[in-house]
Specification:
Layout (H helix, E strand, L loop, with lengths): L7 H11 L2 H8 L6 H10 L3 E2 L14 E3 L2 E3 L3 E3 L14 H10 L2 E4 L7 H6 L7 E5 L5 H13 L4 E5 L9 H4 L24 H6 L12 H7 L3 E7 L2 H9 L4 E4 L13 H13 L10 E5 L5 H9 L4 E4 L1 H33 L12 E2 L29
Parallel strand pairs: 4-5, 4-11, 5-6, 6-7, 7-8, 8-9, 9-10, 10-11
Antiparallel strand pairs: 1-12, 2-3
Helix pairs in contact: 1-13, 4-13, 10-11
The chain binds (2S)-2-hydroxyoctanoic acid.
The site of (2S)-2-hydroxyoctanoic acid (HOC) has 10 residues, from loops.
């Protein structure tokens, strides 16, 4: 029963027990040996708090602003595909719970519900972001993006870590049956392979030719904030900044793409150091987000201390609605809220702005790789590629 769920891990256990094998395989799978998905979680456990005391934490406030939109949590709901594999109401579970509790949802291109159904389920003024897979037919993408902007979407998160599908072997062992859950296959979908899992069946429209040269084109078709989702290096963070993007998500696609990629949390340290050389910090015009393996408010606080503006949670909410529908998502939000309240008090931070780098000890974050904290991988001998070379 829902009242026995105490944390976001519990939702995962329930989802595993209740979901059909195909859905569980698609949602939970990661690429190759699934090393990165484990590392995403493990990285948080290598950062330790340095709590401050005697700070009158009678009242604490964990609300924030994400890309100009008010958010009751320093967390947004990250895009995950095919919500109806988990629950008949699919992504609407997220939209309704997010609207009720002031949380921002990132609508996935590969949602089971249509884009308009999702926007229609939002309450007036509810901020929404859009995750974008770029279609081989750019006219389709242009129409989609401009329609989203017209319908009030505030930011475009372009997925850049998936020019090709990673090998998710757990998922590949399942046959794709189009039973309606994955019905919103994008226009332009060709050559649908039905015998190698869900992901392969839904992804053939995605354009692998996407390059830095396309960023000005996106700028020319929309005034929404443009965020690149799936950045892993300081070099690319700087290219994104110089290309005029408004932010990046340090993400490895939940461990589903290039296995043995480092976690977003670990990359955050070098990326923030690199961005500091380019402008003010925090930079009001350039946000850094992190996702991957986030299950606790304490994970989020660590990422914020290390420089993230906010953090994306994908599977955590996906498993919540797969288990209990909208109620599950609301409970997940409540759990995070309670954890923020407690952890911020114990940490000695009354507001998100009071969470500073000195509140964490990240010296063990990279110790497993034989690096010391002072070994910044973004070093002076590296000459970042200029945009012109693409
Ligand atoms: C090459 C494109 O994001 C997932 C989704 C959809 C995958 C598309 C990959 O399963 O991770």
């Amino acid at each position: 029963p829902l009242d026995e769920v105490l944390n976001l891990h519990d939702f995962e256990a329930v989802a595993k027990a209740v979901l059909p094998a195909k859905a569980w395989a698609y949602y939970s799978s990661a690429s190759d040996d699934e090393i990165t998905i484990r590392e995403n979680r493990a990285a948080f456990q290598r950062v330790w708090f340095r709590p401050r005391i005697l700070r009158d934490v009678t009242s604490v406030d964990w609300s924030t602003t994400i890309l100009g939109c008010k958010s009751s949590l320093p967390v947004y709901i990250s895009a995950t595909a095919l919500g109806k594999l988990g629950h008949p109401d699919g992504e609407l579970n997220l939209t309704r719970a997010a609207g009720k509790h002031g949380v921002i949802q990132m609508i996935p291109t590969l949602a089971s519900c249509s884009f308009d159904e999702i926007v229609d389920a939002a309450v007036p003024g509810q901020p929404l972001f859009l995750q974008l897979y770029v279609n081989r037919d750019r006219e389709i993408t242009k129409k989609y993006v401009q329609h989203a902007e017209k319908r009030g979407v505030k930011a475009l998160f372009i997925t850049v870590d998936a020019p090709q599908l990673g090998r998710r072997e757990k998922d590949m062992r399942m046959k794709f049956v189009d039973d309606g859950a994955g019905a919103k296959v994008q226009e332009g979908q060709k050559d649908v392979k039905k015998d190698q899992g869900v992901a392969r069946a839904i992804s053939s429209f995605i354009d692998p030719s996407l390059s830095w040269k396309d960023i000005p084109w996106f700028r020319s078709i929309t005034n929404m904030h443009i965020i690149l989702k799936g950045v892993s290096t300081p070099e690319d963070a700087i290219l994104a900044y110089e290309a005029g993007c408004q932010g990046i998500v340090l993400s490895n696609h939940g461990g589903r793409q290039l296995d043995t990629s480092r976690s977003g949390l670990e990359n955050l340290v070098d990326i923030v150091a690199a961005l500091k050389t380019k402008g003010p910090w925090p930079n009001p015009n350039f946000s850094v987000f992190v996702d991957g393996g986030v299950r606790r408010a304490s994970d989020v606080l660590k990422a914020i201390a290390l420089g993230a503006s906010a953090v994306g949670v994908g599977r955590g909410f996906l498993y919540a609605f797969s288990s209990y529908g909208q109620e599950g998502v609301e409970k997940a939000i409540q759990i995070l809220r309670d954890e923020f309240e407690m952890n911020m008090r114990l940490l000695g931070a009354r507001t998100i702005n009071e969470i500073v780098p000195e509140m964490v000890d990240a010296s063990a974050l990279r110790s497993h790789a034989g690096l010391t904290p002072s070994d910044n991988l973004y070093n002076s001998t590296y000459q970042p590629l200029s945009l012109a070379s693409f």
